[in-house]
Amino acid sequence: MSELPAAGAAAAAAAAPGAAAPGAGAAAAAPGAVDANDPRLYIDRELSLLDFFRRVLEEAQDPSNPLLERVRFLSIVSSNLAEFFMVRVAGLKQQIDAGVGETSLAGMSPPQQLEAVRARSQELMQETRRCLKDLLLLLEREGIRVVDYASLDPSQREEMDRYFHRFVFPVLTPLAVDPGRPFPHISNMSLNLALVIRDSQGSERFARVKLPATLPRLLDVRGAGHARADEDARTPRTFLLLEQLVSANVATLFPGMQVVESHPFRVTRDAEVSIQELEAEDLLETIEKGVRQRRFGRVVRLTVDTAMPVSIRQILSENLEVEPADVYTMEPPLGMSDIDQLHGLDRRDLKYPSFVPALPPEIEAADGDLFSAIRHQDLLLHHPFDSFDPVTRFLETAARDPAVLAIKQTLYRVGQDSPVVHALLEAVRRGKQVAVLVELKARFDEESNIEWARALESEGVHVVYGLLGLKTHSKIALVVRQDADRLRRYVHLSTGNYNAVTAHQYTDLGLFTCDDDIGADASDVFNYLTGYSDMRSYRRFLVAPIGLRSGLERLIRREIEHRRSGGEGHLVFKINSLVDKAMIQLLYEASRAGVRIDLVVRGMCCLRPGVPGVSENIHVTSIVGRFLEHSRVFWFCNGGNAEIYLGSADLMGRNLDRRVEILFPVLDPRLVAHIRADILGTYLSDTAKARVMQPDGSYHRAGPDGGVEGPPGARGGLDSQAEFIRVRQAQPARS
């Protein structure tokens, strides 16, 4: 790292890595010449994202995690890297092709970023291979083996060959390459075999076989490809990779020919769906077409195994038009996300202990009358520690309740067979007014959302697809009900999606309320989304792209003023990403004014904490654990009269300026105190899964005393997510 600019000449490494002391931050920095535009004050976003993947990999390497959970973490790293190439690397290549000369926050040009990303990605991919080798050895000790075809005994080979001829051979299509048959299209993320075939005259030709994605990648040898239901969970299991079985039998696809070479390869394509919304007559059809075209995007990565000869690599590179720098040579297996299949084994001894999400006692006490419970007080759900069932019950009850007149909701990622969508369909069938915004541009969920949009429209639901040029990312549901005394609006707001599956995998916060101002704001937001509106301010909400950025700036500056006037200034933000330059500069300004700033940033963080004279009052941690941290929380001390906003927005330009986002306040002082002390306080006390960000952008594990310690290993300390589970099981009531 080059020397960092600072008011004073202290080195960045001298900044304390641990949390700031309780109370106000350090004294305000003396006025000094700090150029907030100096690129040395920022971390490159692409490299920061790759560093997040490395933190996930650390969980796969950590022996304190259950073995099959470590396998899952490794699978997630592979999947994340694939998406990174499909989106981020593809974007860098597009910038280079377009001649974009603009540099990143860290002062890197697109070619410099691409070079750095390639090197960092190569290191990460090699490290995942080493981790896989370690995990496979540990799995073997537990009776779970992934073997080569050559190591099968004769009876096993016979059984697997029989499986090949019955289930695999019929769906394989060999594609030859010669003057009459051009090089075939290689679809995105498909696994293939590159073959050299020799005929009876000794001529050699190239051929390709695509492995069917409809079959499991890991074949159960004892069950002839499929697990046997009558086996004990601890019965030793042996698995064979599909590509090895196909390669061993591939000669049957070329009768009378000799297979000289057989090597797996995989391509990753540009998966960005470019939509010209202003020119699109039908947004749904346009996006559907864009999703189909994703299979034909430019190749941004070609992955081959180490045994593939140069001659075959050259054939692939030339026909796929891949630069040499985009060819990655790896130890097999290629595409390790499929090893998550092992996590499906019934080996509870090798997984996290199961737990049953809690049902808040306020809802249990209401004896099924959720509307009564909400009228009594605002309700907060902390998923997955609190059950997602009240959310689906809220919509299902509204669908059946004769007093409910209308339901309005935004849908971003709802998943397959969604109980939320089924409730909306039931509501419209019962004659209620139902309006739904389905965000078709939710990356990699477009097809699912298109299907749900059509299903809803076919039943008479008013479906809209959002605003031109903006992605609707907010999570809100509004129920209009005729209560005994008056018409009342019940609102559910969340930091996470209306997805019953990910609600068990992601940490999120959801709020039920019937506050009149929030209800009025909810109505205004839906009018903005479904009709025409030039509303510039809201009673309670901060709404992007209208006033969210300015609202956050106002709240941060209020902390600065509190500190400058001799009071306490303190911010605690929990977010997924911190990338926006203006927000980072404002946080630097707050730090220089003496405001204490605690940031829990799961992924990308372009801010450098602990730089003397710039950010010594800023402490950044990243928590990677059993569940994906997804909630966004913004806590403002406000001179002792604390305020909290929750929502779906990160501190990124896209969230603040190019999406419809909502930050909503928590108005109940009881819940404000609970979030600050019991949720944020627990995260900030994490010493097991927290990593502390250093001024140079590196991360170190938090030690038991809140300091930092070395590489991962068996450790104690407070695991925030495990603590949330423990508290929910032991103390269901919150007074």
Secondary structure elements and pairings:
Elements lengths: L44 H17 L5 H31 L12 H32 L2 E4 L6 H15 L5 E4 L13 E8 L5 E7 L7 E3 L16 E5 H8 L8 E12 L13 H11 L5 E7 L4 H11 L6 E4 L30 H5 L4 H7 L2 E5 L5 H12 L3 E8 L7 H11 L3 E6 L7 H13 L3 E3 L6 E2 L2 E8 L4 E8 L11 E8 L2 H15 L11 E3 L3 H17 L5 E6 L5 H12 L3 E6 L16 E6 L4 E2 L2 E5 L6 E5 L5 H5 L1 E7 L3 H16 L5 E4 L5 E4 L5 E2 L10 H11 L5
Parallel strand pairs: 1-6, 8-9, 11-12, 12-13, 14-25, 17-22, 19-20, 20-21
Antiparallel strand pairs: 2-4, 3-4, 3-7, 5-6, 7-8, 10-17, 11-15, 15-16, 16-17, 18-25, 19-23, 21-26, 23-24, 24-25, 26-27, 27-28
What does this structure look like?
By secondary structure, the protein is α/β, with parallel strands linked by helices. Strands 14, 18, 19, 20, 21, 23, 24, 25, 26, 27 and 28 form an 11-stranded mixed beta sheet that branches. Helix 7 links the parallel strand 8 (299-305) and strand 9 (327-330). The longest helix is centred in the first third of the chain and has 32 residues, at 110-141.
Q: Any low-confidence stretches, pLDDT <50, length ≥5? A: 5-24, 274-284, 708-714
Mean pLDDT: 88
Work out the number of β strands.
Answer: 28
For the biggest sheet, the summary is:
11 strands, mixed
What portion of residues belong to β-strands? 15-25%
Summarize the structure.
With 735 residues, the chain is α/β, with parallel strands linked by helices. Strands 14, 18, 19, 20, 21, 23, 24, 25, 26, 27 and 28 form an eleven-stranded mixed β-sheet that branches. Strand 12, helix 12 and strand 13 form a beta-alpha-beta unit.
